[in-house]
Specification:
Length: 256
């Protein structure tokens, strides 16, 4: 039994004047503790698939099973980290990172202590009483990660969480997020347009074709890269070879 099973997903958007098929016959399995990436041309349905996996969108056809149970839209088993941090600007960092616990009625002294310890562990010690505007973009994304992890979700959705950051901050956060999720044995799905990011962070990369989105090819990241931090992986010779291979496949999809 796979941790997450996506079975024959097909999704069509209907409007008054048009019918658009976003996804067609998508099936894949993800194991517990795995970090995978969804990569593909714009319009290939990556974000639509994330919405279906999280239960926010019901597919036209197909099923999604988490630990062999159907996904529901009102569960706390799935956490989201997005391109924007969506921290409340009028609340302190401490209030922000505890928000998910409060809304899900999980806030108590034990969960609060654990969350604030995690805040310290990822380099945000001493910012608890500060407002988001007092932090850099990278620091705010760290706070957003802590808020996401506080409710202890079984599955994390990372929807281009580093794309708005400068390159140096992005690389640092890739390492931080990767190490944190590995230590906590979290299962994660990253949606990205960045081939290098997908290779450096993932165990597997799922490449989708566009309009309608179909699973085109799966790339297994070699153990030599998986055993390294994302930053170290980028400097390995296998990284360049894999980058070129995926680049060519992606280019052929975009030109077809």
């Amino acid at each position: 039994m796979s941790f997450l099973a996506i079975n024959e997903i097909h999704h069509t958007y209907l409007t008054k004047n048009s019918v658009t098929t976003a996804l067609s016959d998508v099936s894949l399995k993800i194991e517990e503790g795995e970090f995978v990436s969804f990569l593909g041309p714009s319009g290939c349905g990556k974000t639509t698939l994330l919405s279906i996996i999280s239960g926010l969108l019901k597919p036209t056809q197909g099923t999604v099973l988490l630990e062999n149970k159907p996904i529901s839209s009102n569960n706390n088993e799935i956490g989201y980290m997005l391109q924007q941090d969506y921290l409340f600007p009028w609340k302190t960092i401490e209030e922000n990172v505890l928000m998910g616990l409060k809304l899900s009625n999980q806030l108590n002294e034990k969960s609060k202590t654990k969350t604030l310890q995690l805040l310290n562990q990822i380099g945000l010690k001493g910012v608890e009483k500060q407002l988001p505007k007092q932090l850099s973009g990278g620091m705010r994304q760290r706070a957003a990660l802590v808020r996401t992890l506080a409710t202890e979700p079984k599955l994390l959705m990372l929807d281009e969480p580093f794309s708005a950051l400068d390159y140096q901050t992005k690389l640092k956060l890739e390492d931080l997020v990767s190490n944190t999720l590995t230590e906590l044995n979290k299962t994660a799905i990253l949606v990205t347009h960045d081939i290098g990011e997908a290779i450096a962070m993932s165990d597997r990369v799922f490449l989708f074709s566009a309009r309608p989105g179909k699973l085109h090819q799966t790339f297994q990241i070699p153990n030599e890269l998986r055993d390294l931090s994302p930053l170290e992986a980028r400097n390995h010779e296998l990284y360049s070879n894999l980058f070129e291979m995926i680049w060519k496949e992606l280019e052929s999809l975009e030109s077809s």
